[in-house]
Amino acid sequence: MTAHRQVYLDNNATTMCAPEVVSAMEPYWNGRYGNPSSMHSFGGDVRREVDQARGEIAALLGAQPSEIVFTSGGSESDNLAIRGTVEALGGQKRHIITTRVEHPAVRGLCHHLQKQGYRLTELPVDSEGTLDLDLLAQAITPDTAIVSIMWANNETGVVFPMEEIARICKSRRVVLHTDAVQAAGKIPIDVSRLPVDLLSISGHKLHGPKGIGALYVRKGTKLVPLIIGGHQEGGKRAGTENVTGIVGLGQACSLARKYLTEEFGYVRGLRDRLQQGIVSGCEGVRINGKNRLPNTLNVSFEYVEGEAILLLLDELGISASSGSACASGSLEPSHVMRAMGVPFTAAHGSIRFSLSRYNTGEEIDYVVQHLPKIIDRLREISPFVGGREWHGTPLPGHSH
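and the corresponding structure tokens:
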């Protein structure tokens, strides 16, 4: 079947590279190819552009340019933050605290370190995806090396109370890292007033290029580099800088500052329009999470397979996700849905719609027009429902 149009609603997986970003990067593919570490002016001119981009990223985060370390993306930033911190402590502290709903880049590394002899505490979330901060305070001990808690969840969009989390960690003098890959450019971040020690971002999540990211490292935070062999990035990450990607990330961060208000108005309005349309048009619906990013909607459809929903949406040119793009290929329900206690009959039918400033109201209406038909069609053939056995009974605690 040929799609009539393309509606892209998977922006938490990756975003379209903004036209302004593409234009900014173009000269660095060939004409301005100097090495920023070279002594000659051909490389020195490129160094100035790298420094300018570093300043744009710092401005988005409320940081100092010297506190920004370029990486290959969010996963490397997370690894550098956590592994770099525990190695800097030389094994003196062997306890790590994180949550059960972290991105695989954090969760996978923490489980790896657990196998290496570190003690791991994974904080639970409730049915709305929120944390009990009393449990965080109770979990911190003199042996705690680092606390790593994401700013916003990539699957549900739930925003964690980073100000309170940072206050708890600061009072206990423990290093705090936050994966802010989904939060950056969507909600305000100001590390000048928030005592976060380490913060990860990724270019392709905020309309920049893939393969570039950054780690904010608060001045005075001790960190052992993952990549050794050069003086680049203040000795924190060896290797010739990805100048093209850095320039693109800088431009993307500049645009993110410009359009931040639009996220709370225009994009949130589209997201709410989509949510209302789904709730009114479909039965057996569960909205996952509260206090979410303005662009994110995670919804479960009871007794329907998420993969089947996505395939039928794709036939209509609608791109969405069943959770984290990094976990695609797994037949298991999302670890985030499991942590939130979403019933098995709904967890497999969880779909994430994530919007951007490039979406339109017409696109949302197109989805709302077709999605209820897809759900009805799948329920008719569902082995869980048996077609005529579905009576449209709402999930406990939820209308429709």
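(Above: one complete record from the training split.) The chain has two domains: 7-15+260-381, 19-256.
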